[in-house]
Amino acid sequence: MSTELGNEYIFNGRHVADVPRRLRALEESYDPGTVGRLERLGVGAGWHCLEVGTGAGSVTRWLSDRVGPAGRVLAADLDTSFFTGEGLDNVEVRQLDLRSERPPEGEFDLVHARLVLGHLPERDRVLDALVAALRPGGWLLVEEAEEFPFHGMGDGLHREVVLAALAAMETAGFTAKWGRKLPALFRARGLEDVSAVVEAPIVPGGSSGLEWLRLSIDQLIRGGHPIQVHGRGGYEQWRRKSEDPDTWLVSLPLVAAQGRAARR
Questions:
Q1: From CA 158, how far away is CA 233, in angstroms rounded?
Q2: In a 10 Å sphere around its CB, with 0-12 CB exposed, 13-18 middle and 19+ buried, how is residue 79 labelled?
Q3: Which domain holds residue 139?
């Protein structure tokens, strides 16, 4: 990706040595909710699936097992070097920059993207491409970060740190204010059976949900995006709280929106 601040993926691997650890914590945090939604959509044998932002590949591996030998999964990411699902006969791993490349059109029973589009200033145009990739009757599931639950809940320092981190990320083109728009955006693009939920996990310190958040903010700071936290102790005090198993905090909420392409 471009190294210009406004166009760079914030969590570029060069900014932290332990990207696999961060990706693993992300998967442990959000896979249960994601897999539950995919199961309810009825993903099954023979489906053709597009996984956008495959990361370390946990959802891709689940899809591979679910669709079986008669199905296929296209696992796409800007950086595929962290993918750990090699050797799956029904999976194709492809490097794809959604800002300038489009996935195949009209081919997929399922298109899934988690924590991808919020990083792209071209997110609305990319959403058009994901809708176009659906077969008639195919499902689109998009899961994006959303900040609004933090404004009325949780520990004060925790709220300040997370909102400060999200504000810093906005300087690089990220938004955590787009997920709430997804149902309307889906309907505007002709999708049917549209619905959405907010997932806001409340987890103990030291859990994967807070480890992922902590590693993400550490990586954000190392990448040249400082956060502004006031009060005694500031960010270091928050880090200690996030590792205390007797402290329960809200991890980053997601909006999960789903919709179906019209059947012809």
A1: 12
A2: middle
A3: 5-147+175-201+252-260
